[in-house]
């Protein structure tokens, strides 16, 4: 059985989505599922192509024991086929992703990340780029919660199908 593939998407792919990708990888490793669940991230914009994660985001993540790896890339149409589930950080990301799906073929694959959080009531992962360190820490806390819920959901649904 092939791996289950998750793609996290934000605007620049230097703050929120690389954090989600690396937090999820951390949880997947802890669960012993690294061979079965693959994570990647992308941005809807091309603003920061090839850049490493934002330094302020990396500091906040490191404070929670997560090292941010990766380089920014832009979301592309082929990602709809390549990935099993696409997680948008906010509603604008969600709409920008679905704008590329003119045939509405992949609507079921695209979800808002905050749907999976159980200890936070936010509907979107707030863009921390123009704010202070508090905003970056909030992003990490929210993503730790949402990634945990997402992993439980993936385990539940994919285990049933015998995929994990
Ligand atoms: P991200 O944050 O979408 O979480 O990576 C941002 C990064 C860059 C910009 C905005 C948000 N920017 O305007 O350059």
Characterization of the model:
- This protein is of the alpha/beta class and 164 residues long.
- It has one domain (4-158): Rossmann fold (3-Layer(aba) Sandwich), CATH 3.40.50.
- It contains five helices and four strands, in the order βαβααβαβα.
- It has a four-stranded parallel β-sheet, sandwiched between helices.
- Strand 1 (4-10), helix 1 (16-30) and strand 2 (37-43) form a beta-alpha-beta unit.
- Helix 1 crosses helix 5 and helix 2 (55-62) crosses helix 5 (133-160).
- It is globular.
- The N and C termini lie close together (8 Å).
- The model has no long low-confidence stretch (mean pLDDT 97).
- Bound molecules: 4-nitrophenyl phosphate.
- 4-nitrophenyl phosphate binds at residues 10-16, 47, 127, 129.
- The site of 4-nitrophenyl phosphate has 10 residues, from loops.
Furnish the topology, listing elements before pairings:
Blueprint: E1 4-10, H1 16-30, E2 37-43, H2 55-62, H3 79-82, E3 85-88, H4 91-99, E4 110-112, H5 133-160
Parallel strand pairs: 1-2, 1-3, 3-4
Helix pairs in contact: 1-5, 2-5
Bound molecules: 4-nitrophenyl phosphate (4NP).
4-nitrophenyl phosphate (4NP) is lined by residues 10-16, 47, 127, 129.
